[in-house]
Amino acid sequence: MENPQRMTDNGQEVSFIPVAAPVFSNNDGHSHPCYEIFPQGGDRCSRRVTLCLGVLNLVLLIVAGVVGVKCAKIKDSLQVSHSAATQLISELNNLRSNHSDVIKAEEEAKKDLERALQNHTLLKMQVEQHETLNDGYQRQIETLRTEKKNLQSNISAFEGSCGKCLSGWILHNSSCYFFSYVESSTVRKNWPDSRADCISHGADLVVIDNPEEQAFVSVTVTNVQGDITWQNGAWVGLTDIETEGTWVWITNVTEVEQRYWVDGEPNNHGIEGEDCGIVSYSSSNPWKTRYDGKCQIHELYWICEMPPR
């Protein structure tokens, strides 16, 4: 199709490019240019097309606005969802951390429980041992109580006679003493017979084993007899019959004290010798009271000793 050309007023030639006419479809299904449908109204067709395009633009603008609003809402919703998700993730992490702490605490609690059970078992064993010991102690206490009752009964039975001496005997420091001249100033015996008399009373000749007892015997002899010599002395349980010069008490205890002998004694005077001990009194020195005498020949007083009954 050739381009139409026109001449301008100044003689220049201008070309025109034809614009396609609007096309419409009629009822027969075929498309026709607008000027064919409206042969007398080409301008009207153009206006309608323009109007349709304007409506279409308006619809598109509305749709674009609606889409923008929706997008904004979706964006806000996504932001809210992202914030909520972040918070949920943070809480989840906290829960995981707390869960780990709970697991650790549970393990520690299990260990503590096991230790507590072990301690409980040990304490239970110790308690059982203590109970066994306590039962033993209780039985011992009961036994001791029974023995105490028996002893108290025995004490009650003997307290009427216990701690007393026979009539005519003198009590001194848990011992009973018998001075024969108190009973009779005329009866005298040799050493063996004197000892036999003491034994007949459940006693024996006196054994002087400490200074206090020596003083007691010496003072008592002095108070009763006054100033006397060895002839008025009394036999005691001291001899050197076994070994001459080694004086031994009847309890088999060797006498080592020398200060109680009168000066010059013991002298073992005479052919028969002097092998038995005598206690007398010395006015010059009350501590020097001992002589040696003839056991079978000399007849003297005697002193017996025994524990209280």
TrEMBL record:
SMART domains: CLECT (SM00034)
Family annotation (CDD domains): CLECT_DC-SIGN_like
Top-level division of the source organism's lineage: Eukaryota
Domain C-type lectin per the UniProt entry, residue ranges: 172-288
Transmembrane segments: 49-69
Gene Ontology MF annotations: carbohydrate binding
Keywords: Coiled coil, Lectin, Membrane, Transmembrane, Transmembrane helix
Gene3D superfamilies linked: Mannose-Binding Protein A, subunit A
Annotated coiled-coil segments of the chain: 96-161
Family annotation (PROSITE patterns): C_TYPE_LECTIN_2 (PS50041)
Protein name, entry field: C-type lectin domain-containing protein
